[in-house]
Amino acid sequence: MKELILGKLSMHALPHEWFTIAGSVSFLLLALTIVVVLTWTKRWKWLWKEWLTSVDPKKIGIMYFIAGGFMLLRGGLDAIMLWLQQALSAGEAHGYLTADHFQQIFTAHGNIMVFFVAMALIFGLINYFVPLQIGARDLASPFLNTLGFWLYIGGVIMVNMFFFLGGEYAATGWLAIAPLSELQFSPGMGVDYWIWSLQIAGIGTTLGAINFIMTILKMRAPGMSLWRMPPFTWGSLCSMIMVVTVFPLLTATLFLLFFDRYFGTHFFTTMGGGDPMMYTNLIWMWGHPEVYILVLPAFGVFSEVVATFSRKRLASYTSNVLGMIGVATFSLSVWLHHFFTMGASADVNAFFGVMTMVIAIPTSVLVFSWIATMYKGRIQFKTPMLWFLGFIGIFAVGGMAGVVLAVPPADFQLHNSLFLVAHFHSNVIGGVLFGIFAALSYWFPKITGVRLNERIGRYAFVAWVVGFCLSFIPMYILGFMGATRRLDHYDSATGWQPLYVLMFIGGLVIAIGVALQIIQIIASFMQRRRLRDTTGDPWDGRSLEWATASPPQAYNFTTIPQVEQRDAFWHMKQQGLPKPAYENIIVPKNTGAGIYISAFAFLASFGFVWEITWLIVASIIGVLAVFVVRTFNDDVEYKLTAEQVRKLEAERKQKDEAEQQRKAPALGIDNSEDMGLRDFTKAAATFGLDVIRNKRWRTWQKQN
Amino acid sequence: MGKNRKKNGWSTAGPILLVLAGLAVLITLLLRDTNVALFNSKGLIADEQQSLMLLTVGIMLILGIPAVCLIYFTAWRYRESNTRPARNPNAGHGKLLNASMWLVPGAIALVLAMILWPATHHLAPQKQIAAEAKPLTIQVVALRWKWLFIYPEQKIATVNYVQVPVGTPVTFELTADEAPMSSFWIPNLGGMLYAMTGHVNRLNLLATVPGDYPGSSAEINGAGFAGMKFTASATSKETFDQWVRDVSLTAKTMDGTEYDKLLKPSENNPSELYSLLENDLYDKVVMKYMGSHEAHTDGAHH
Predict the structure, then answer these.
(1) With contact defined as beta carbons under 8 Å apart, do A522 and A509 qualify?
(2) For A43-567+582-591+632-657, CATH number?
């Protein structure tokens, strides 16, 4: 009877180890704080109506940034824990983690960073800026977009659920290579959590990608041909096409592994005719393109940043775009270089080695196109440009390491060593994460209406690069010394310990960089009178996202721009901006259907993890029911008349002016230059004292 | 303003360059007297893999160093505060430039591919090494979490220790039993290959310098992964033969019960020596996973 109701759940599943207790308590405290703040400030309704049910891609983008940023802290903490263990655990000393726990942490670190940080932030950027860049008011299917986002949130919760129930995550490495991930070797529910968190997030990603392909292909402003699209939109299009190509593979592979574990089939087992090598192939056929899915939009960002801050149009636009298309295409034919060492014949290995060399060509073309863009430009070293310059050095090293790894005989020595780990962190941190940082500092004024503090931004950049060098240069060297990845312990005679300690110190420096980034954002809002972007175009930008207000209206543009050439907004500025004209605008209505479907999908997954049959059946019925109801709901849009739009614009202008007139709170902030850390500390202390003395929180409640 | 910006430039690049320089010195100091295995080859295959690695790195650097220098030089030269160079917002679109963007990396990739293709065939792990000495076969079983080495001709077996004669080509026949995929790696002697249940992967190595070299599993395979280490000892032919005689005379016998003990998961195992009665232990291990199918052997399917 108990099993019928609770499946495999029992009291034993509750947290009872230090890390699950610490994890669940901190998550609960966080949730409690949020609940208290929302209740106190009376913002529940506001949150639901303005944010959670919103179908505005800009708001969904911001929610992606918040969730992804939070998960970055979570995955970063994992990294620090891993490095600390490795710094401590030589010879007689065994560190503070068990092998099993250590393995769970690096699995979680990989999953979180790739799926729930990098994918989230990239999707956030695409959500926010692709519609703006193509001059669209909306997406092809706003509902599909909120559904994709909420499925991602379902995945985020699922990947952290083990803290509360079960107490173990997969200890298999981020791709859960079979047969290690099969029941025989991983009997616990850790791998099930892994399967279902990736499964629901992955389906969300696929839905999102379909939507963006449709949006880019069908909703561009008049005159914007494909060859006039900004590079970020091009990178996003390539990336989304790849998502639709390879994510179904991930979905299928996860299902097959699930069948093996749940129904006792033998796709990837060692016994019963299964073949684990099939799993390795399938997962990398998805896994290799996955990194390019992340990096292509980042390449697009760098093209935008270099052009804007060199004050030139992007040089060799056609080569640049063809480069991205080339990278996307060839990345589908290199997956086997992840396992040259599995025993394929020399012909097979050599073919995939050569294909990997080929992919270096379009990648180099992109780099040359950025150099050509800087050539004879007038370069301003704003923080986005700094992130670009940091990226290019790190990415060059990582890329060259990648080419060495692509030579099969060399790979036999370097595979699964720390050299490999250093290589892909160079490309993913240098390429993807720095790309995201460049994008966020470049577009921050568009998102919030406030530019970021340049000074603290520079500090953060220096801390990141220094921390990166301290962490990953020793990692390359350790690879040469024969250190394999994922070691929770090693002999002291190896002489590896000092390098592991350096890596840990580097991790701490990176943590300082992250702290500085958070301070940078707070400091920028403190100086918002100085840093406010009233023009909508703080960098003298080139593409259409700068043609509208900062932050943009819900409908993006009052008037849909007419595109006559590349760098559409730059051209419009040369020609003289058109006078705003008002027209009727169709706006999609908010919907909670995405949340409901995602909640049911989450419950079904939870049922699968714990084998609770009634919950699975009920939740799947729930998913279908909401979907059907939503499908037959025709009342999904409303019309803003030209008159209403005119009014909204007038109100907005008034509000802006009032904001300008408003007296700044007396925090003793000097607005003559971007504040440094000392001024920030002073201002923060003054602010804190002011809040306590004058009981400022009484004004924080939402006024109707 | 211009002065200020210059200062900013150095306050950004300065600490980074300083850390890089410090790191270079520190790492050089740390690396004295340590085994930088990949550049400390003690075997024929490791030698060739090492030179191939260096060749590839060298070719990459021919493109990489100038490219990276060009990037930073361009960025520095065309900084806004530098009033000297001519500006042209339309520069960088020439046909020649566009063509060379594709052709230069294309040429490098072509050169690399032309090196890669024959080298991959020449250094294929399954390829028998030609040498005067008679080749030695060692059968390797990855277990949770230890390595079992079977010398079929010498009728001995070892755990977490393998001895090979210098100058003799050795074929390691890799498989696994009740263990996830594992990767067999002796970095001083040459690159790795996976050991998998129901498959036999052949890895050919040849030690050229006597000594004790660390070996491990390079692929994550469960809780005992970090402790799944062994020592590969390369000795003279005479010492090797003597060792074989000693083991077959003095060591305990490997039989069904001993093997079942080994099958049980265990961590950080010490090395063990066995004499071997039956010669078909390895075949049994491989066939256990075959059912009615034939054994897959590397490269040569069906």
Answers:
(1) no
(2) 1.20.210.10
The complex's ipTM works out to 0.93
Instruction: Inspect the interface and report whether the beta carbons of B109 and A411 lie closer than 8 Å.
Output: no
Tell me the three state secondary structure of residue A532. strand
Query: What are the structural domain ranges in chain B?
Result: 136-290
- Given a contact cutoff of 8 angstroms between Cβ atoms, the answer to whether B158 and B252 are in contact is no
Q: Measure the CA–CA gap between A146 and A138, rounded to whole angstroms.
A: 13
Task: Give the pLDDT confidence score for residue A120 in this predicted structure.
Answer: 97
Give me B120's structure tokens.
């991959």
Q: Please, are residues B205 and B45 in contact by the beta-carbon 8 Å criterion?
A: yes
Question: Confidence class of residue B8 from pLDDT cuts 50, 70 and 90?
Answer: low
Residues 6+ apart with CB under 8 A from A677: A456, A459, A519
Coil, helix or strand at residue B79: strand
Options 2.60.40.420, 3.10.450.50, 2.40.480.10, 3.40.50.150; CATH of B136-290: 2.60.40.420
Sheet holding B136-143, edge to edge: B252-254, B272-276, B156-159, B146-151, B136-143, B170-176, B199-205, B296-297
| Stretch 250-269 of chain B: residues touching chain A, C-beta under 8 Å | 267
**Three-state secondary structure readout of A558-575:** CCCCCCCCCCHHHHHHHH
Mean pLDDT, rounded, for B70-89:
90
Q: Which two tokens stand for residue A444?
A: 């921050």
Residues of B within 8 A of A361 (CB-CB) are 102, 105-106, 109
For the packed helices A57-88 and A497-526, what is the interaxial angle rounded to 10 degrees?
150
Which residues pair with residue A139 across a beta bridge?
Answer: none
Residue from the list B68, B112, B183 with its beta carbon closest to the beta carbon of A341? B183
Determine the pLDDT at residue A438.
Answer: 97
User: Structural domain boundaries of chain A?
Assistant: 43-567+582-591+632-657, 665-699
Q: Cα–Cα distance between B91 and B78 in angstroms, integer? A: 12
Given a cut of 60, is residue B293 above it in pLDDT?
no
Under 8 Å between Cβ of A237 and A326: no
A444 Cβ partners below 8 Å, 6+ apart? Answer: A450, A451, A452, A524
- Residue A666: its pLDDT value, please? 57
Question: Under a CB-based contact definition with an 8 Å cutoff, are residues B222 and B228 in contact?
Answer: no
Cβ pair B233, B150 in contact under 8 A: no
Residue B216: is its pLDDT beyond 70? yes
- Decide if pLDDT at B254 tops 80: yes
Cβ–Cβ gap A376/B85 under 8 Å: yes
Chain B residues touching residue A416 (CB < 8 angstroms): 183, 185, 192, 218-219
Backbone angles phi, psi at B218, to 5 degrees: -95, -5
* The pLDDT value given to residue A575: 87
By CB neighbour count within 10 A (0-12 exposed, 13-18 middle, 19+ buried), where does B30 fall?
A: middle
The first and second tokens of residue A8, run together, are 């495999």
Q: Identify which of B63, B101, B226 has the shortest CB distance to residue A316.
A: B101
pLDDT computed for residue B83 by the predictor: 87
C-beta atoms of A407 and B63 within 8 A:
no
With a cut of 70, which residues of chain A have pLDDT below it?
Answer: 663-667, 703-704
Is A197 strand, coil or helix?
helix
Crossing angle of helices A190-218/A99-111, nearest 10°? 10
- How much is the pTM? 0.94
What is the predicted pLDDT for the residue at B292? 47
Per-residue confidence (pLDDT) for residue A667, from 0 to 100? 66
Residue of A nearest to B69 (CA): A393
- Which pLDDT value is given to residue B294? 46
Tokens representing B65 are 């160093």
Pairing of strands B136-143, B190-195: unpaired
**Residue B136 Cα distances to B163, B189, B207, angstroms:** 11, 15, 12
